[in-house]
Design a protein that fits this description.
The protein is an alpha+beta fold. Helix content is 19%, strand content 33%. The chain is built from five helices and twelve strands. Strands 1, 4, 6, 10 and 12 form a five-stranded mixed beta sheet that branches. A four-stranded antiparallel beta sheet has the order 7-11-9-8, with helices on one face.
Amino acid sequence: MRVFCATAPLCLTLTAASAQTASQSPPSTQPAFAFEVVSIHMVAPYSEDEIRRGLGDFPWSTFPTSRFFAHHLTLKMLIGLAYGVDQKYIQGGPDWLDSQAYDIEAKVEGERQLTYEQIKPLLQHLLEQRLEVATHRVTKMFPGYALIVAKGGEKLQPAKGDTRPHANIFSNRLQAQHMDLDHFVEILSHPIGYPVVDKTGITGNFDFDLSYAPANDPGSPLPSLFTALQEQLGLKLETQKVPVEMLVIDHADKIPTEN
């Protein structure tokens, strides 16, 4: 299965087919493109009061871009963004991984407009060079769900136009455009709260618009997410264990090398 990163634009990682396998992640080779100018600084964490007052946003670049930035992200968030892994599937590392924040400003050589997938190896290389980040991957079995076709058949809407795949998740709604089922389950795993694999056997790109009751809102007139899937999309979730690839942090320096 693939894992969708909640804190980044369509952060993807393809997991291994078997469980409990491990592979060492060698240092990344020099990417095809490079950051021409890079600045990385440690910044003080926001206080709990500041976060309550709305000062705790964690912005980063939209894509495509020739200028990548990440403001006030912890190293764990940066690693999730760089390696395309949901933070809940990142293990190990120093005890400050979730607390020490950083600001990054980087410009790509020339004015190339790079996608998120093209930026990822640049960001990996940056973290490996400036913070000595070293990782390896291990695949484990987790409780999750398989997405299958419900009785009565699927009710999917073929994608319209040639828009780039994208998605939005709200407390009571999930929208995705021009997306196949492999990527849709990555997004679906977040409101579900567990990993989801696609076992529908359906190919092609679709537009999704799913409305459901917010979590912990029994008074909502909307159906539960599980019921909404069946009624609105003709799809069903079955409980099963699924393979999920974990990213293990072997080493990271707190203080970056000089800019």
